[in-house]
Design brief:
Length: 496
């Protein structure tokens, strides 16, 4: 069996713990540290204890994600200028935890510009030093509850402005900003009260984490035939933020942050909300439907806007649907057809194996798609994508907030929405109403699929060992919510 190498979790100084259990852990560890520092003057004791608590919570978070999961702890003083922690206090506490045998170094960081150092003939990227808790510290973790670990929403950066090219930029704090921030805080507080999970076996969980590890990450970590890089899948990651591209707050604006967004789409059918199975619904042909509705024109074809088999005799129904969808979206975001072709060639190995017949070139297929959508041809090559993303983010906000008003948990994946099976009819109405509010029209079709939990054996006959981690999480949530009584959440999600 391959050796599993979990990627490290990045150090999060916003972690807090809702409960007194952490205090006893910190007190015990601090007492041991003071014995080692006996005779030394400790300036700002409070700062040291604060750093100790945050370090312990980060190590606990990693441990409960994966027993072998390390934490990437920045060693540069620059990082701490933006955090509420003091650099010297944090470094001193960290070093003492290592000295006492509660923490160990897993991988030393590289603090230099990309490509300035090589291992063999290969340039290595800058990386943060990785640290892992030891069994000595694991004994203290037994006092802590997984779901009492929270994000400090008071300091949470829920509205982020910038992109890959510009990075984060200074942005205006205006009424629009404050209203969005207020809505996000409402959403995140509500999610905090909901158990969102993934009903999978322990073996399947490993498979998912493996699928989530990108090739470049595996190469960076030096994966061999005897190794298996596993990305973290942290089920406490359910706090959302929005990304915008400028101060108008009208470009992009989509929601990010929930763990359900990062898992492969085929596994989303296993999502459970408070122990119940879910259904996923999404708007059909979202962006192009909006473009046609905005100009008041009927769509060229009814049904699927990405299926052009009725216009190409050589194609069967559904042929090259996904390829056409991707190319049309490239056409919305690229500056010209040449750039579209460049993007296609970059993805040739993964998506675009060859030009579909009867077209001889990618240029020919692009020209066909332009003609097929001639009523909205002026929208191509005009950076429409980020404007349309803003519109679908407005839809998502309305749908999620309407759900909260009705005590219905709704998870978004851009223009797709996940809810308990029993709530699907109400959520579909929320989606239709939101589209009318934002776009000004009804008439949007919604793709509606629900799924059985597709284990080969009925869930009632599954052996406990197969779903140990799922049951442990659910039982721990039950205890977190109702520590002195029976929980209402089922141990296994009932079938619809």
């Amino acid at each position: 069996m391959p050796r599993q190498l979990p990627r490290d979790l990045f150090f999060d100084y916003q972690l807090i713990y809702k409960g007194t259990e952490i205090d006893s852990v910190v007190e015990d560890l601090w007492e041991l540290m003071e014995e080692q520092w006996k005779g030394e003057r400790i300036r700002d004791k409070e700062s040291h204890i604060k750093s100790l608590k945050v370090l312990v919570l980060n190590l606990f978070n990693a441990y409960r994600t994966d027993v072998n999961m390390p934490v990437g702890i920045p060693q540069s003083s620059n990082f701490y200028t933006k955090s509420p922690l003091g650099y010297k206090a944090t470094k001193r506490v960290q070093d003492m935890l290592i000295k006492l045998g509660y923490v160990k170094l897993v991988r030393k960081g590289v603090n230099r510009a990309k490509g300035t150092k090589t291992e063999g003939n290969k340039a290595i990227k800058p990386r943060t030093s990785s640290y892992k808790s030891t069994k000595k510290l694991h004994n203290y973790f037994g006092r802590l509850n997984l779901y009492s670990l929270k994000i400090n929403l008071n300091n949470f950066n829920s509205i982020r402005v910038g992109n890959k090219e510009t990075g984060n930029i200074e942005h205006e704090v205006n009424p629009t900003f404050m209203e969005m921030k207020k809505s996000l805080r409402k959403i995140n507080k509500y999610y905090d009260s909901i158990h969102i999970d993934l009903f999978v076996t322990d073996e399947e969980l490993t498979t998912i984490r493996r699928q989530m590890s990108h090739k470049e990450v595996r190469e960076e970590w030096g994966e061999t035939q005897d190794d298996m890089i596993l990305k973290d899948l942290n089920f406490r990651r359910k706090y959302l933020h929005r990304k915008f591209y400028d101060n108008t707050y009208k470009l992009h604006g989509r929601f990010y942050g929930g763990f359900w967004e990062g898992i492969p789409s085929e596994w989303r059918k296993r999502i459970t909300i408070n122990g119940r199975p879910t259904v996923e619904m999404d708007y059909t042909n979202m962006h192009f439907a909006i473009l046609y509705h905005e100009i008041g024109e009927k769509m060229i074809q009814t049904g699927d806007l990405y299926d052009f088999s009725h216009l190409v005799p050589e194609w069967e129904k559904g042929d090259y649907r996904d390829e056409c969808k991707l190319i049309m979206n490239y056409m919305l975001n690229c500056k010209d057809a040449e750039e579209v072709i460049s993007v296609i060639k970059k993805n040739r190995a993964k998506i675009f194996n060859k030009v579909p017949k009867p077209f001889k070139t990618w240029q020919g297929l692009i020209g066909f798609l332009e003609e097929a959508n001639h009523l909205i041809a002026d929208k191509f090559y005009s950076s429409q994508g980020i404007r349309l993303m803003y519109l679908d983010s407005q839809l998502a906000e309305k749908v999620i907030l309407k759900g909260i008003e009705n005590d219905i948990c709704i998870l978004s994946v851009h223009d797709s929405f996940i809810c308990k099976f029993e709530h699907h009819a109400k959520v579909m109405k929320f989606m239709l109403d939101a589209y009318k509010d934002v776009i000004g029209k009804y008439g949007k079709s919604i793709k509606f699929d629900w799924y059985d939990i597709d284990f080969e054996a009925p869930i009632e006959t599954l052996k406990d060992k197969d779903i140990t981690t799922y049951l442990n999480r659910l039982q721990e949530w039950n205890w977190h919510r109702q520590p002195y009584g029976d929980s209402s959440l089922p141990l296994l999600p009932p079938m619809p």
